[in-house]
Design a protein that fits this description.
Layout (H helix, E strand, L loop, with lengths): L2 H9 L1 H13 L2 E2 H7 L1 H4 L4 H13 L3 E4 L2 E4 L1 H25 L1 H16 L8 E3 L2 E5 L5 E5 L12 E3 L5 E6 L6 E6 L6 E2 L1 H15 L3 E4 L7 E4 L10 E5 L5
Antiparallel strand pairs: 1-3, 2-3, 4-5, 5-6, 6-13, 7-11, 8-9, 9-10, 11-12, 12-13
Helix pairs in contact: 2-6, 6-7
Length: 242
């Protein structure tokens, strides 16, 4: 059997279910196997099921003993392979379809739309997976992570309350244009704020800003109010402190 045939068995739902059923039961009749794949057949015909059954017989993965079917030694090995794949996938799927998939895809889209270079790996930030830009100014996290203790003291801010002002930079940096908020003792880059705010509005329809008022913390940008879930990501922007 070719390598691609083995993988086709692992990913094909009908062949996969037949093997799993025989691995669980030891042996099974035709009607039992047909029932075991009924949930994945959808609108496929019994003839389609027979095609897959014949494929497994032809490739010596199952054998027929009178009215019942059983796994061969090769079939038992493939059943173990499928089980290993299932166990690995159960650990990997939440990362691929949940937090990491959303933040990596959003990071790619954000980089494409804004030109801000994003790193290709995630790092841990207070227990959260975060993708940052090269200067560690912008971070992208899963919006679900906003439920964490780190954000417990964050409060909403109105974007219209931010005011442009000029601050003298350190050493030879010259003057810096920054955004100040009356409730904050620190500032935010107008470029970073506008990029993230616009990205959230264009891709998710809305943008919300949250911050801690007592001490400098990264500003948090979401497409919804805290506690309300959505399909997407959240941003953190490092504060400017003078």
């Amino acid at each position: 059997m070719r390598k691609d045939d083995v993988f086709s068995i692992a990913v094909d739902p009908t062949r996969n279910r037949i093997i799993k059923r025989l691995e669980e039961a030891g042996k099974a009749a035709y009607s039992d196997l047909l029932d075991s794949v009924d949930t994945v057949r959808h609108l496929t015909s019994t003839g389609n099921f027979n095609y897959h059954l014949e494929f497994l017989l032809k490739n010596s993965i199952i054998t027929k003993d009178g009215p019942v079917y059983k796994l061969t030694d090769k079939g038992l090995e493939i059943a173990r392979f499928i089980k290993d794949v299932d166990q690995s996938w159960s650990k990997l799927e939440p990362k691929l379809r949940g937090e990491n998939m959303s933040i990596f895809s959003c990071a790619e889209r954000f980089e494409k739309e804004t030109g801000t270079k994003m790193l290709r790996n995630s790092r841990s930030f207070h227990g959260m997976d975060m993708i940052s830009d090269e200067k560690r100014v912008i971070g992208i996290i899963a919006q679900e992570d906003c439920r964490g203790e780190f954000f417990a003291s964050y409060q909403p801010l109105a974007v219209e309350d931010f005011k442009l002002c000029v601050k003298k930079g350190c050493k030879d940096e010259g003057n810096m244009l920054i955004l100040a908020h009356p409730d904050l003792k620190y500032y935010v880059s107008p470029t970073m704020l506008s990029q993230v705010y616009q990205f959230l509005e264009e891709n998710f329809g809305e943008a919300q800003i949250f911050a801690t008022k007592e001490q400098p913390h990264p500003l948090l940008f979401r497409a919804e109010t805290m506690g309300k879930d959505y399909i997407g990501c959240a941003f953190m922007i490092a504060p400017c402190v003078f």
